[in-house]
From TrEMBL:
GO molecular function annotation: serine-type carboxypeptidase activity
Highest taxon listed in the record's lineage: Eukaryota
Record PANTHER family: SERINE CARBOXYPEPTIDASE CTSA-4.1, SERINE PROTEASE FAMILY S10 SERINE CARBOXYPEPTIDASE
UniProt protein name: Carboxypeptidase
Entry keyword set: Carboxypeptidase, Glycoprotein, Hydrolase, Protease, Signal
GO biological process, one term: proteolysis
Protein source organism: Daedalea quercina L-15889
Signal peptide: 1-18
Length: 495
């Protein structure tokens, strides 16, 4: 989910200059070789040797302030190796799930998944979308035959601190994506060093919604950290691709597209009344000009926020007044968006994860004694206050492409909040050496089992795809198409 509390509405946030968020090294993260002695490290070995009754603590001398608590579990799938635990960064603790592949865990690639928000738990991705099981009522989970672990080993991580079952002991917080990236990159390195059966495997970093912000920065951190790992005599992580579903990556490209999605048949028939569309049409150029001047060309916090307020009032607010689902404009929101996120199943997931036996099974720390929350208002507010949403993250995608890291941008055609029109504009404008070839490619249909599944455009390492009939959460709405898309991408096949 991509959301922001403002003026009583849940809307997207705004963009700003990279100069506002220098990529400084987080205190306590040591990647220098001066303190690393290979003789001090013994890898744990194989995941199957882990205990089901208690956590095993993993560490690495190259990351002295990081530990990983991990245990075996029979949670959710039951047919594959399942593991849960915490990434411990001194007084900060990130919860994660890991599921081995149903196909061939000894050979299949590894996928990292995060939900968005900022502040929404990846338990939603696990139990509602692409995970090995789904929860539709608080009493139990059911097997999901369309899980991405049909062909991949996969992580689900509750990040940053304060999201889902993640917690901090003394009120520590993380409020920017570059800060969060340090923790994720360190965890990835420690995991691959301890469990050598995964070394060299293709590693794919995936996420949706605010994942359009998270994933490019996380992947860049993993890529840049590889140089330090090699310098220390370790194996680099085989970062193969990024996979961004319905991402909000460049706000300046996304805002004008809200008019297209509601007042033209870009997805469904126009849903706004004509007079509102006329007013929105007149506001779009003013909105674009204000965002470009105050948020992109030269960032000024006060002026940029004023521009965003104007855009929200004239372009976003009229949509929310309709009562339609911002994550799927083909239908109305089901329940108050602040309570259900338009999907009552999120309440069932929360009730399921609040069951004491479930928390004990997956090893939720006893200090996490509050009810499960799908999304954290506090984390969301902290990221908004830091202007994290204003970062031009598309530049990271371009930089990754230049370094041979593939990028898949897929979008459910019915999504409004992080829609396909805005994502396509962002990619067509993206500056990289393959831009001309990408722009020259026409959109064409791709199919699953002989039926048209959506539109796609591809050039070199970059692929863009839409999925017909899907909203913001593609694996939830179109599970078969989502799995086929993933399988083809992991195999390096054209759609």
């Amino acid at each position: 989910m991509f959301w922001r509390r403002f003026s009583g509405l849940l809307t997207a946030a705004v963009v700003a200059s990279a100069a506002q968020h220098p990529l400084s090294v987080q205190p306590g993260v040591n990647l220098g070789t001066d303190r690393y002695d290979a003789g001090l490290f013994t890898p744990f070995g194989d995941l199957s040797a882990l205990s089901t009754d208690e956590f095993t603590i993993l560490s690495h001398p190259l990351f002295p302030n990081y530990n990983v608590r991990i245990k075996k579990s029979d949670f959710c799938d039951g047919t594959v190796g399942t593991y849960t635990g915490y990434i411990d960064i001194q007084a900060r603790h990130l919860f994660f799930y890991f599921f081995e592949s149903r196909s061939d865990p000894t050979k299949d690639d590894v996928v990292f998944w995060t939900n968005g928000g900022p502040g929404c738990s990846s338990s939603l991705g696990l139990l509602m979308e692409l995970g090995p099981c789904r929860v539709t009522n608080p009493e139990n989970s059911t097997f999901n035959p369309y899980s991405w672990n049909e062909k991949a080993n996969i992580f689900f991580v509750d990040q940053p601190i304060g999201v889902g079952f993640s917690y901090a002991e003394y009120g520590e917080t993380v409020s920017t994506t570059p800060e969060a990236a340090k923790d994720i990159a360190a965890f990835v390195a420690i995991f691959f060093e301890h469990f050598s059966q995964f070394k060299g495997r293709g590693f794919h970093m995936a996420g949706e919604s605010y994942g359009g912000r998270y994933i490019p920065v996380f992947a860049a951190e993993v890529y840049d950290q590889n140089a330090k790992l090699v310098e220390a005599g370790l194996n680099p992580v085989n970062l193969s691709s990024v996979m961004i579903g319905n991402g909000c990556t460049d706000w300046a490209s996304m805002v004008p597209s809200y008019y297209d999605m509601t007042c033209s048949p870009a997805s469904v028939a126009p849903i706004m009344d004509i007079s509102s569309c006329v007013r929105m049409k007149q506001a779009v150029p003013r909105c674009q000009k204000a965002l470009q001047k105050s948020c992109v060309d030269k960032f000024d916090s006060f002026s940029c926020e004023a521009a965003n307020l104007f855009c929200e009032a004239e372009i976003s607010a009229p949509f929310f007044a309709t009562g339609y689902n911002p994550y799927d404009i083909s239908k109305p929101c089901d329940g108050p968006i602040s309570d259900t996120l338009c999907y009552p199943v999120t309440k069932a997931i929360g009730a399921y994860l609040d069951r004491p036996e479930v928390r004990k099974q997956i090893g939720v720390d006893p200090s996490v004694n509050s009810n499960f929350s799908s999304c954290s208002d506090e984390v969301n507010a902290a990221f908004n206050a830091a202007d994290d949403q204003m970062f031009p993250t598309q530049f990271y995608i371009g930089a990754l492409l230049e370094r041979g890291v593939r990028a898949l941008i897929y979008v459910g055609a019915n999504d409004w909040i992080c829609n396909w029109v805005g994502n396509e504009h962002m990619l067509l404008d993206l500056e990289w050496t393959g831009q001309e070839a990408f722009v020259a490619e026409p959109l064409k249909e791709w199919s699953v089992d002989g039926s048209a599944a959506g539109l796609t455009r591809s050039a070199g390492p970059l692929t863009f795809a839409t999925i017909y009939g899907a909203g913001h959460m593609v694996p939830y709405d179109k599970p078969a198409e989502s799995l086929e898309l993933t399988k083809r991408w992991l195999a390096g096949e054209n759609l």
